[in-house]
Amino acid sequence: MKRNLTAQLLEAIDYSPAVVLLGPRQSGKTTLALELARERPAIYLDLESEQDRAKLAQPELYLADHLDKLVILDEVHRAPGLFPVLRGLIDRARRDGRRAGQYLLLGSASLDLLKQSGETLAGRVAYLELTPFHVLEVAERPLDELWLRGGFPESLLAGSDARSLRWRQDFIRSYLERDIPQFGPRIAAETLRRFWTMLAHHQGGLLNTAQFARNLGVDVKTAGGYLGLLVDLLLVRRLLPWHSNPGKRLVKSPKVFIRDSGIVHALLNIPDKETLLAHPVVGASWEGFAIENLLANAMATDPMVQACFYRSSGGAEIDLLLAWPDGRLWAIEIKRSLAPKLERGFHAACADLKPERRFVVYPGGERYRLAEDIEAVPLPQLAKSLRGG
Predict the structure, then answer these.
(1) Residue 370 phi, psi (nearest 5)
(2) What pTM was computed for the model?
């Protein structure tokens, strides 16, 4: 299944000496990298493999033998000492006239990898994020199936809902017991599972770290650290509030979403669509699902687009506000209803901000006007519009 990021990744490799491809585990980074490796001279090293790590016992000597190839380093965050070596080899290749296409670095944790590579490879590296499948990549599959199962390839393509749920439960267990301990101080797997499950129940709610801390029996700093870790692993999104309206009293806390809807449903033991539609999380789950799909396509068009939400103390509210670099604003309300109706809060927020475009995303199949300046749009159609289609 073709990934929409392929063209961007090829372009980045062709203009930058090093490219960092970020994404959560099992999102398809390795598959995509190996596809590209078949089209050009390349070698692939998995830094979770003892055999491949042994090849890099003296990395400068080994990598110097492959300056004529694209070197793919998977799970590169496991070898932070490589970055100074890569900088030296990139500079040597530049002197020899080769200015692009040398290293593709794959990683599943953003903060440390961005910091390490940014400090060491400044001016030599480009960054891309591969999300799990989004709606335009699997247009032939039912939208509600993608919503229920989420976008991780093994979950979405499973033979049944039951197998998909089992894969996601195993994925969560693997993260808690094997992956997360690599990235920081030892955290009890059961404590972090409880925290992750609390986030699922709180999907789309305003962040209240103190409340989470009380419920877990830990201090606020510790609870904040748990959240930061899940954000760093690209599993949770903090959607920040709009703050550039000094004349209004605005909400200052971010909203918190588990980024993949299938993981939300696995944490809440929701096995099928019928159970989901009767669950209290249904609206918040749909909102998070829509936001992730829209942002994946908006950022593919312009990585500098800023996403936030708007909420004032007077009740004015917009679920998703896209601020484009040229100053344009798009206001997007998200409804899980085939006959969406807008509350006064959306109109009041639009009166405050005067966005250029105003949309209501809903699960139907027809695009139509709710008012002269407001369109009701199916999620796939708005995702396509954001991608320039």
Answers:
(1) -90, -25
(2) 0.92
Q: Which domains does the chain have, with CATH numbers?
A: 6-129 (3.40.50.300), 143-386 (no CATH)
Question: Residue 66, CB half-sphere, CA atoms under 13 Å: how many?
Answer: 21
DSSP string, 163-226: HHHHHHHHHHHHIIIIIGGGGSS---HHHHHHHHHHHHHTTTEEP-HHHHHHHHTS-HHHHHHH
> Beta strands 306-311 and 317-323: pairing type?
antiparallel
Q: How many angstroms separate the Cα of 317 from the Cα of each of 250, 251, 262, 290? A: 10, 10, 27, 17
What is d(CA 296, CA 277) in angstroms, rounded to the nearest whole number? 25
Partners of 329 in beta bridges: 323
The residues, ordered by sequence, that sit 6+ positions from 271 with a Cβ below 8 Å of its Cβ are 161, 162, 165
Q: What is the CA radius of gyration of the chain?
A: 22
- Give residue 380's Cα distance to chain centre: 18
- And the tokens for 73? 């380093």
Task: Extract the tokens encoding 310.
Answer: 């708007």
Q: Give the Cα separation of 317 and 311 in Å (integer).
A: 4
CB 55 within 8 A of CB 64: no
Token pair in block for residue 255: 């909203």
Task: From first to last of the 389 residues of the chain, give the pLDDT tens digit.
Answer: 789 999 999 999 999 999 999 999 899 999 999 998 888 899 999 988 899 989 998 988 999 888 889 999 998 877 778 888 888 888 888 888 888 889 999 988 765 666 666 667 777 888 899 999 999 999 899 999 999 999 999 999 999 999 999 999 999 999 888 877 776 567 788 889 999 999 999 999 999 999 999 999 999 999 999 999 899 889 999 999 998 765 677 888 999 999 999 999 999 999 999 999 999 999 999 999 999 999 999 998 888 999 999 998 888 999 999 999 999 999 999 999 999 999 999 999 999 999 999 999 999 999 999 998 999 999 999 999 998 75
